[in-house]
């Protein structure tokens, strides 16, 4: 997993069942880290005894070494069970990267998803925490929350961005009034040896207007490119997103006015706080669609690449019944890295 911005570049290395995974980042200003705050952030991503999460429990305590222009963070894998995949040698799991990876390099060992596994979002979160910390010093906050699980919908920035939503990054990942309904949706899927998808929303507040640019400097482009590094993300939208396609311009446009303090304000925010790839001073809002976990216990059709025959499989092992829940801090991390890169680029001009 690699990403190169205008100021920040990084590579996430390792595989889900390797001895270690990690991230090497450059272009990141040094900041003394709050170890307790980092542990809390990493804990939001960790698997726990929840209906939605895998039974693979990892400590995820990063070892960080700073250099002149960045840092390296290493996380040990301590709870690996490659034997769970012994029956799947040469048998690609439907909707995983297994078959696509085979087409690229001929691999037949699909244990744990390799470098395509969501396990590698752990080191991404380390870099994201650093980025969030730097942004927070500048009064910029990145908050994300689960806005839908399956058919259960919770709070959305499309109707109103509330302080409760902006506190999600500190206190939890859920729309409180809908949490139990969402969890029940996950439990029902898990009981049926199945999985369920979800929607995560994110807001960036405190970001000044004028950050970003056209073409490859687009703020939307940077954010989206990092969001798609999260393995289960299959759709990204800003503001009203895909619903803009059914609107007329008179409905979709965000009218401007001067508020009581003489500052420019907007009547609404269907553009998601970005015009022409540049922040306009409104809150930057976006959402991602997170697909259902491909690894499910139900019988599925596949093939054997070693003997050229059709195969029926039931996937065993430890997997999340809903990826979206643990992906919330990962989205915050991705967005924070992109915003910081755009901000540092602007400051360098």
Explain how this protein is built:
The chain is α+β, with helices and mostly antiparallel strands. It has one domain (2-348): Chorismate synthase, AroC fold (4-Layer Sandwich), CATH 3.60.150.10. Helix content is 27%, strand content 22%. The chain is built from 9 helices and 16 strands. The protein has a 5-stranded antiparallel β-sheet, with helices on one face. Strands 7-6-8-14-9 form a 5-stranded antiparallel β-sheet. A two-stranded antiparallel ribbon has the order 10-11. β4 and β5 form a beta hairpin. The protein is globular. The two termini are 28 Å apart. The model has no long low-confidence stretch (mean pLDDT 89).
Structural class: alpha+beta
CATH architecture classification: 4-Layer Sandwich
Large-scale geometry: globular
Q: What's the order of the H and E elements?
A: EEEHEEHHEEHHHEHEHEEEEEEEH
CATH level-1 class: Alpha Beta
